Amino acid sequence: MQIDPKGTVAGWPALVVRRTLRKLRTRLAWGPGELESAASVEASEGRALIKALLAEGLIESNGRRAWKVTQAGQTLSSATAAKRVTRATAQKALQQFLNRVEQVNNDPHFLGKVTRVVLFGSMLKPEVERFSDVDLAVELMSKEEDFDRARARNYERVEELSVQGHRFRNFLEQEGCWYWEVFEFLKRQSRVIALADYSVEKTFVLTVPHRFLIGQPERIVEPSAPDTPKSGGRKRRPRDCPF
């Protein structure tokens, strides 16, 4: 996704919106004060910005006076304001990404693993030679299959990062530590890679041209029509029925 560095989003400078969403996207919930800090605005402006982002579908409520960034907001936060790149540059960025996937899956430091990588978007159009980004969706799973052991290892990592100075805003961020550590490493601040969560964006990804680079391909399963109940005659009550 590409944005005009001189343009606006929801009536606000596009770069301000993108910067704000980038700072908030890894937090599972945040309040007005955190948004004001991320956007570098006053309290009165913060309320107006929240309303604007809500109206655009870039954030959504996550409790009383708490919000979270939506998938649309995640996509915008990864948008580039740079010039389009050639297919060769995009292909190089894609290969570097796949190298990081291999590192994640083979390095025991990472608690999560990549089980699917799906390429979609303009990279699949051979007639397109210049791109704003490379659209990818990833599916992540814990390497530890046992839930209790996986949770224990996750909280060991939480403690390690806390000692290093990382601040977790809430319980949910701690619970998802293993996930966000992998996701952020894969993104690696690449201005070319636009990364989405496959489990969240599955319906969209599978309805547009796409290619599974890693993992078992899937298709959207159309819901079957419910069986029409057969009409039957009125059943007679047994003679000894008390009602």
Query: Biggest sheet, strands in spatial order?
Result: 9-8-6-10
Q: Helix-strand pattern, N to C?
A: EEHHHEEHEHEEEHHHEHE
Mean pLDDT over all positions? 86
The gyration radius over C-alpha positions equals: 23 Å
Helix content: 40-55%
Give the class from helix and strand content and strand pairing: alpha+beta
Task: Describe this protein's structure.
It is a single chain. The chain is α+β, with helices and mostly antiparallel strands. 42% of the residues lie in helices and 17% in strands. The protein contains nine helices and ten strands. The chain has helices at 14-24, 32-39, 43-55, 71-77, 87-106, 147-163, 171-175, 177-187, 198-207; strands at 8-9, 12-13, 59-61, 67-69, 85-86, 112-120, 130-131, 134-142, 193-197, 210-214. The strands form four sheets. It has a four-stranded mixed sheet with strand order 9-8-6-10, with helices on both faces. Helix 1 (14-24) crosses helix 2 (32-39), helix 2 crosses helix 3 (43-55) and helix 5 (87-106) runs antiparallel to helix 8. It is globular. Mean pLDDT is 86; it is low at 230-235 and 237-243.
Kindly summarize this structure in a few lines.
The chain has helices at residues 14-24, 32-39, 43-55, 71-77, 87-106, 147-163, 171-175, 177-187, 198-207, and strands at residues 8-9, 12-13, 59-61, 67-69, 85-86, 112-120, 130-131, 134-142, 193-197, 210-214. It is an alpha+beta fold.
